[in-house]
Write a structure and sequence with these properties.
seven-stranded mixed β-sheet, alpha/beta, five-stranded parallel β-sheet, Rossmann fold, 20% strand, 2 domains, 10 helices
Length: 288
């Protein structure tokens, strides 16, 4: 039987051990790990993957793009696509800094408590890689999304970029300072915190006082919580009029999704698993 080989392209100097271990647990036979990868070094690595195996055996080689810098990872993904020759190619997956698997798991968790179509959602710290994807996925399923940042201009730019990828729902930009009040959260049914660690954006009394709240999710695993009153291990824990999830609370589905996505890479040689594709995998995992 042909061995499954996963080539890990990482922009960081040391490729992520986390991503490698998850891949091995997902059934990969051999890992080829490359750190400090730049766009200019992608083509020979991709060609090495393409030209060593032909026909049906191409599906047994795949490429995972990781690293802590999601913008660099997106450029590496584009470079991989550019290196292909028609059907002579291998499957690709992007999950730099866990952006796609984390966002997908969070949105699926929210959908357990409310239909996303027509739901009013607020994404705190929405201009970061996870926040952008959370907003994109919820808008794609028809949610009315308010994306926040400390800069209104950055929030507006993010909304415009996301709108090109999410044709459903509605995206609104909003600016917040050191703390967020009820004006932005008024009527919110879903609140997802994606801001950088070290900032409490919403006080517990504020989030607990939202009558419309169905679910609050804080993806920050480092104290203090971005959403007051949410513990890192919360999983549908009561909070005000809704329920709360912490980073570990959505972590089980994130890990399940990550492993399932790696396995799917080897089903054919023509897949590109990015935000939307990984979101669908997360939905499937939640049903299984």
């Amino acid at each position: 039987m042909t061995s499954r080989i996963l080539i890990q392209l990482d922009s960081d100097l040391q490729p992520s051990s986390f991503d490698s271990i998850v891949a091995i647990d997902a059934g990969v036979d051999h890992m080829l790990r490359y750190g400090g990868v730049q766009v200019t070094s992608v083509e020979p690595l991709v060609h090495g993957a393409m030209f060593t195996r032909g026909g049906e055996n191409l599906r047994h080689t795949a490429i995972f793009i990781g690293g802590s810098d999601v913008m660099v990872a997106e450029r590496l993904l584009a470079a991989c696509k550019d290196a292909f020759f028609g059907p002579v190619r291998v499957s690709l997956m992007l999950d730099a800094n866990g952006c796609n698997t984390t966002a997908s798991a969070a949105v699926v968790a929210a959908s357990r408590h409310i239909d996303l179509n027509g739901a009013k959602a607020v994404v705190l710290g929405g201009t970061g890689p996870v926040g952008r994807r959370v907003a994109q996925l919820m808008a794609s399923d028809g949610a009315d999304v308010t994306l926040t940042s400390r800069s209104k201009q950055r929030a507006e730019v993010a909304c415009k970029e996301i709108a090109n990828k999410a044709k459903n729902g509605k995206l609104t930009a909003a600016a917040i300072g050191n703390g967020i009040g009820t004006n932005v959260l008024d009527g919110a049914q879903i609140v997802i915190g994606c801001a950088a660690a070290g900032f409490e954006l919403v006080k517990e009394r504020t989030i607990a006082g939202i009558e419309s709240l169905k679910v609050a999710i804080d993806l920050n695993a480092v104290p203090p919580a971005g959403i007051g009153g949410v513990s890192v291990a919360d999983k549908a824990a009561p909070l005000g009029n809704g329920v709360a999830y912490g980073a570990i609370g959505v972590g089980g589905l994130k890990m399940k999704t990550h492993r399932a996505a790696i396995k799917q890479l080897f089903e054919s040689n023509d897949q590109v698993l990015d935000a939307n594709e990984i979101y669908q995998i997360a939905k499937d995992c939640a049903r299984s």
